[in-house]
Amino acid sequence: MMWMVDKLLVEAPLIFASLLLASAFLTIADFFDEVEEFVLKAEEGLRAFEQHLAEASYLMTTTRPSSQRARFYNVIGLRIC
Question: What does the domain layout of the chain look like in residue ranges?
Answer without folding.
Answer: 2-75
